[in-house]
C-alpha cells in the first residue's frame, strides 16, 4: 500500500498511476527523489532552479511510518514542492511490497526507468533489488552533481 499525496488517498501497488503529462516517451527516465535529506536539503525555489533544465519527470517518494506525526508533516511539506509525491511504509533492503524498491519496480513495469536519489543505503539496496538505478546522496552538492549527469 502506498499513499498519493496529491490525491490524498491510499493506493494499492497494482493501482499506482503517476498521471504524468509526459508519459513514457523516447526517454523513459524518471527521477525519484527521497524527501528527507534529499529534497528537503533545498527550499522549493532552490529545487525548482536545480531541476529547471531537466527534461524528464520528477516525483518525490518518501518512507514514513504509517501512523506517525512524520507522515502528517511530510504530507504537508511535500505539497510545497509542487511535484507529485508518494509515501511508502516499509523500509527494506529488498523489493518487498510497500518498499521503495517495490514501488520503483511497478514504475519499471509501466515502462519508466526510475532513478532513485536517496540518502539511505537500505533504500538504495531496495531499488537495486528491483533492478532500478539508484544514487546515494549525502549532501546538497551530490544532488546538484547527479542532476547535472541527467541533463
3D structure, described in words:
It is a single chain. The protein is α/β, with parallel strands linked by helices and 151 residues long. The protein has a single domain (2-13, 29-150), classed as Rossmann fold (3-Layer(aba) Sandwich). Helices cover 32% and strands 21% of the residues. The chain has helices at residues 44-51, 69-79, 100-109, 121-129, 140-150; strands at 2-4, 9-11, 29-33, 58-63, 85-88, 113-118, 133-136. The protein has a seven-stranded mixed beta sheet with strand order 2-1-5-4-3-6-7, with helices on both faces. Helix 4 links the parallel strand 6 (113-118) and strand 7. Helix 3 runs parallel beside helix 4. The longest helix is centred in the middle third of the chain and has 11 residues, at 69-79.
Amino acid at each position: 500500500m502506498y499513499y498519493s499525496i496529491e490525491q490524498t488517498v491510499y493506493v494499492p501497488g497494482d493501482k499506482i498511476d503517476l498521471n504524468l503529462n509526459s508519459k513514457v516517451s523516447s526517454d523513459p527516465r524518471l527521477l525519484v527523489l527521497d524527501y528527507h535529506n534529499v529534497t528537503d536539503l533545498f527550499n522549493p525555489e532552490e529545487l525548482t532552479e536545480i531541476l529547471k533544465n531537466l527534461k524528464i519527470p520528477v516525483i518525490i517518494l518518501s518512507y514514513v511510518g504509517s501512523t506517525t506525526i512524520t507522515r502528517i508533516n511530510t504530507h504537508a511539506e511535500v505539497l510545497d514542492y509542487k511535484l507529485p509525491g508518494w509515501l511508502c511504509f516499509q523500509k527494506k533492503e529488498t523489493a518487498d511490497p510497500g518498499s521503495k524498491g517495490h514501488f520503483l519496480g511497478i514504475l519499471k513495469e509501466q515502462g519508466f526507468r526510475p532513478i532513485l536519489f536517496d540518502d539511505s543505503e537500505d533504500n538504495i539496496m531496495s531499488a537495486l533489488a528491483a533492478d532500478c538505478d539508484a544514487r546515494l546522496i549525502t549532501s546538497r552538492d551530490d544532488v546538484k552533481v547527479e542532476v547535472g549527469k541527467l541533463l
